[in-house]
Amino acid sequence: MSSLLINALKGENQDRPPVWLMRQAGRYLPEYREFRKKYSLRELFFTPDLAAKVTKMPVDQFGVDAAILFSDITVVAEGLGLRLDFNEGPQISPNVSPECIGHFGFIPEKLDPIIETIRILKQDLKVPLIGFCGGPFTVASYLVGDLEKTKQWMREDPLTFGKLIDHITAISCTYLQMQVAAGVDAVQVFDSWANVLTKEQHKIFCLNPLEVLIQAAQVPSIFLCAESGSYIEKIPCAVSLDWTISLQDARKRTRQPLQGNLNPDFLFEPLDQIEKKTRELIQSMHRDPSFILNLGHGVKPNTPVNAVRCFVDVVKEFCIEGQSPA
Ligand code: CP3
């Protein structure tokens, strides 16, 4: 599929930058809130027709340049035979502890509804579909149930913790390959909590598994971790940046595609400010052929729908000198 997003991920975009938003299908959309009155999150994530409809909401409403599968990084827990529920955030039961190591299996069929969602979407979606998985360290922290407990396990028993990371990496490879076989055009690896790791831990438990995941996926890949600017040179694929680093600084340090990096709070500003800042950001990247416009983190729950529409419209109307709008 030729598209602005895939062109940018290949470093070949000669047009305006593509735009999509993390958590673009979510709580700020009235249609999504209507769905949530009728269905639980479990039902939405594991019912292909419903998950496909939610995925398409921001594509139909705003004309974003990519869809991201409506799911969560924690669904792989179900593949491990664990139970996933949502309260304030994802809750997995039972939680995983060092005693579990060596007793895990993986039942890929449990993830079939998500794969079916991809197949449904690919029948008529006109923009690329982004699949995803969690980074093994971040997934581990949800399986263990608590970030502090996870860090303690990693410090006190790095050997069994390494086995947990290896297992999550292996099943995530399979899961990404299932998504790619069903038709996703690109993947994003969300390792949100990997910024708490020391340099050495980061190499072993984040960057090494990332290499394995992107090798397995064999489609353009994007990596997200909070503050990923601090080790940007080491990331072997496109980098999703937050606002703790400027895109210009990032560009000086890597040739990989860059995605980002607006603070989601900027969508609460008046529309004229949104317009101005968006234009400035695009201009500041000149004609970078591998830049993807996005936020540095997900859209916040009470974000005005008009602000999202304005943001996307400004990008789509942005005219590269000598060309008409795409
Ligand atoms: O970007 C998208 O629109 C795709 C869908 C998506 C969800 N979660 C849906 C979701 C993606 C890509 C994620 C990734 C995810 N999930 C991450 C990595 C990105 C990040 O936020 O750092 C993490 C850490 C999770 C785990 C998670 N899921 C948390 C901490 C929470 C609770 C807080 C929150 O942000 O909502 C969730 C819940 C969650 N993820 C929901 C959905 C649709 C349910 C809440 C809702 O209705 O929006």
Give the helix proportion (percent range): 40-55%
Taking pLDDT < 50 over at least 5 consecutive residues as the criterion, the unreliable ranges are: none
Can you give the mean pLDDT? 95
Order of helices and strands: HHHHEHEEHEHHHEHEEHEHEH
- β-sheet strand percentage: 5-15%
CATH topology label: TIM Barrel
Number of helices: 13
Number of domains: 1
Class of secondary structure makeup: alpha/beta
Spatial sequence of strands, sheet with the most strands: 1-4-5-6-7-8-9
Compute the gyration radius: what is it?
A: 19 Å
List keywords for this structure.
about 325 residues; alpha/beta; TIM Barrel; seven-stranded parallel beta sheet; two-stranded antiparallel ribbon; 13 helices; 9 strands; about 45% helix; about 10% strand; globular; binds coproporphyrinogen III
Kindly describe this structure.
With 326 residues, the protein is α/β, with parallel strands linked by helices. The chain has a single domain (4-321), classed as TIM Barrel, CATH 3.20.20. The protein is built from 13 helices and nine strands. The chain binds coproporphyrinogen III. Coproporphyrinogen III binds at residues 22-27, 41, 68, 70-74, 86, 89-90, 132, 138, 190, 192, 298.
Chain-wise SSE layout:
Layout: H1 4-9, H2 30-38, H3 41-46, H4 48-62, E1 67-68, H5 76-79, E2 83-86, E3 90-93, H6 112-124, E4 129-134, H7 136-144, H8 147-156, H9 158-182, E5 186-190, H10 199-217, E6 221-224, E7 238-240, H11 247-253, E8 258-262, H12 271-284, E9 291-295, H13 305-317
Helix pairs in contact: 4-6, 7-8, 7-9, 8-9, 9-10, 12-13
The protein binds coproporphyrinogen III.
Coproporphyrinogen III (CP3) binds at residues 22-27, 41, 68, 70-74, 86, 89-90, 132, 138, 190, 192, 298.
